[in-house]
Write a structure and sequence with these properties.
This protein has about 375 residues and is an all-alpha fold. It is built from 16 helices and no strands.
């Protein structure tokens, strides 16, 4: 019989952290650690170039083509004359159509589309829900209520509708946040608070409409969305707020990737989940409020564009947020071009985006079964 020697202790293989093996994977089945592909987590220069070129194309087409037939070659001549100081082929009235109507309208469409798309991507990342949109926390209901009250109380004071809608949108988001914080700290609680506040503000809006039924058509025209600009005023109103929000959301986009790992993992990496969510939701709500104040309620942009970006360029929010900014501008400029040229009378912009977005929403809903929480 052989002597019984003590067995050496068995060495266990090192366990990878949750960040290394992926959220929810078991340690035994953990795949070997691999470096993330740059194509998924970082912006490709060619992708950015393609998005910028698409934006330039729709910008130029939006300026050249309109309800008034000025001739695309004459409009190009006007732009060239404005840049070089030469003689314009357009009359003073035609030049005013180009510079006081078409150019600001195209730029405003780009700003609104960029704001709604990047806000939609942010809300989807914060709530980890692919169907979240920029109006989730009561921004739409607050803006609609405030705009309706202004229209009903002073039908002739249409100039007060944009600032009232801006304040109403921020107020709706603020109420949702306060109600959500008083009931808990989770994102689900905040989401339910947004639903409750939105329902209440929509009820107030309906009551206000019934007080003066003669203004219902004006109210619904605003609610359907549109870009009826009278110059550069609307662009200058929206630009500062959307610009600040865009910088915050693009700089902090990588934090959405960290939040997707879970709060515990994010905290272990030195990120404060609560503060990050507050900052991102505040910036996205600011952009949404600015967009709503100058365009009314335009749906589906915040759902369609981020999902198209994910399909084409990858799922990392470092990629999704900045490309959604560019893609949203492209999408809404093109949709506005259709809205103002497809019929003799201008079609509400919200109707055009609904025609394009509703089928895509169904596709996203079907492809997200089991993932929506």
């Amino acid at each position: 019989m052989s002597p019984n020697f003590p067995r050496p202790p068995r060495e266990e293989p090192p366990q990878n952290s949750a960040a290394e093996r992926g959220w929810g994977a078991s340690p035994q089945a953990a795949p070997p650690l691999r470096k993330a592909s740059p194509a998924v987590t970082r912006l490709r220069p060619l992708t950015v170039l393609a998005a910028v070129l698409a934006l330039l194309v729709v910008l130029v087409l939006g300026i050249l083509i309109g309800a008034a037939d000025l001739g695309w070659h004459r409009v190009l001549g006007e732009i060239f004359a404005e840049v070089t100081g030469g003689r314009s082929p357009l009359s003073a009235r035609e030049a005013a159509i180009v510079w006081q109507l078409r150019v600001p309208r195209v730029l405003l469409a780009g700003l609104v589309g960029a704001a709604l798309a990047m806000s939609g991507a942010t809300f989807q990342g914060v709530f980890r829900n692919p169907l979240a949109d920029p109006y989730l926390l009561g921004a739409a209901a607050g803006a609609g209520m405030a705009a309706t009250i202004v229209v009903v109380a002073a039908p002739q004071a249409s100039g007060w509708v944009p600032p009232a809608a801006f304040v109403g949108a921020l107020g709706g988001v603020g109420l949702s946040w306060l109600l959500g914080r008083s009931a808990g700290t989770g994102t689900a609680t905040l989401l339910l608070a947004g639903v409750a506040v939105g329902s209440f503000l929509s009820a107030v809006q309906t009551f206000a409409q019934q007080l003066n039924t003669e203004t219902i058509r004006q109210v619904y025209t605003w609610l359907l969305g549109g870009l009826n600009v009278s110059g550069w005023r609307e662009v200058l109103i929206a630009l500062p707020y959307i610009g600040v929000a865009a910088v915050i959301l693009c700089v902090c986009a990588r934090l959405l990737d960290v939040l997707s790992l879970g709060d515990a993992e994010a905290a272990s990496l030195g990120v404060h989940p609560g503060r990050v969510r507050l900052l991102l939701l505040a910036a996205a709500s600011l952009a949404t409020a600015a967009a709503v104040s100058v365009s009314g309620l335009i749906g589906f942009v915040g759902i369609v564009v981020p999902h198209v970006v994910r399909l084409l360029a990858g799922a990392s929010y470092r990629v999704v947020v900045p490309l959604s900014l560019l893609g949203g501008a492209v999408f809404l400029i093109a949709a506005d071009q259709v809205a103002r040229t497809i019929m003799p009378g201008e079609l509400p912009l919200g109707v055009v985006t609904a025609f394009a977005g509703a089928p895509f929403f169904v596709f996203v809903l079907r492809s997200s079964r089991g993932k929506v929480s």
